């Protein structure tokens, strides 16, 4: 299944699909519940779920509830781990540079100017 | 962390006034360039505050304007615009640095913000993807994922 970062971002470059992901963060949900929560028609929701599924962001899960067979959607872990790396990059940049700053201010600099 | 910014801090064993001076006047001596070029692809240089701007000067002495200084309030606070590789013309983020006295010296807090605003005007919002957009959306999701990892029986 395609889960490159580009696919993930393309799938998320649409507010309705980000809305779906936000809802699925809380717990898996059936398509009908997602549609009504986002005030969308069932066919429209179905199209968004298809894009999310083809890009590997969500997967279907079949559960038994009472006697009914229920199909719910849930988030897949891998594409979101890739995204996490982008945020970590900015944080890593500043953590690293602040460590350089601290080391220089407390150590290397001493004696040079005083 | 909110969805718009990254915040990092450290405590350094000097007074705020020294910390401010070292952070600004001596940035070339402690900032260590890394990777394929943060500001210009394939080129790493030294940083310098010069005439109300923050510059990166490469090996040939050619400057890249990272951004204008928006607030210069020694020894407490500094705000500077921040552009890097992948930003379209007119796009910018903002870095605020605060210096607060503490018993052990000075707490230096860096807040890198403005990613949400960047996204609003970015062509990436209409389908294509770029470096600035990917970084922005990474920040947006970092927050969500931290929350996710913590609870709701769903661990990443």
Summarize the entry for a quick read.
Chain A is α+β, with helices and mostly antiparallel strands and 114 residues long. Chain A contains 5 helices and 3 strands, in the order ααβααββα.
CATH architecture of chain B: 2-Layer Sandwich
> What spatial form of chain A do the alpha-carbon principal axes imply?
elongated
Q: CATH superfamily of chain B, called what?
A: START domain
Counted by DSSP, the helix tally of chain A is 5
What name is given to the CATH topology of the domain at 5-79 in chain A? Arc Repressor Mutant, subunit A
Distance between the termini of chain B: 18 Å
Question: In percent, how helical is the residue content of chain B?
Answer: 25-40%
Strand order of the largest sheet of chain A: 1-3-2
Structural class of chain A: alpha+beta
Architecture per CATH nomenclature, i.e. the level-2 architecture of the domain at 5-79 in chain A: Orthogonal Bundle
Structural class of chain B: alpha+beta
Largest sheet: number of strands, sense, barrel closure of chain A: 3 strands, antiparallel
**Overall average residue pLDDT of chain A:** 80
Radius of gyration of chain B: 17 Å
Oligomer description: heterodimer
Uncertain segments of chain B: 119-134, 139-156
- Main interface by residue count: A-B, 39 and 43 residues
Plain-language structure description:
The complex is a heterodimer of chains A (114) and B (156). The mean pLDDT of chain A is 80. Chain A has a 3-stranded antiparallel sheet. Chain A is built from 5 helices and 3 strands. Chain A has a domain at 5-79: Arc Repressor Mutant, subunit A (Orthogonal Bundle). Chain A has helices at 5-12, 15-26, 31-37, 42-54, 78-108, and strands at 29-30, 58-65, 68-75. Chain A is elongated. In chain A, α3 (31-37) crosses α4 (42-54). In chain B, a hairpin with a 3-residue loop joins β4 (63-73) and β5 (77-82). By secondary structure, chain B is α+β, with helices and mostly antiparallel strands. Helix content of chain B is 26%, strand content 35%. Mean pLDDT of chain B is 76; it is low at 119-134 and 139-156. Chain B has a 7-stranded antiparallel sheet.
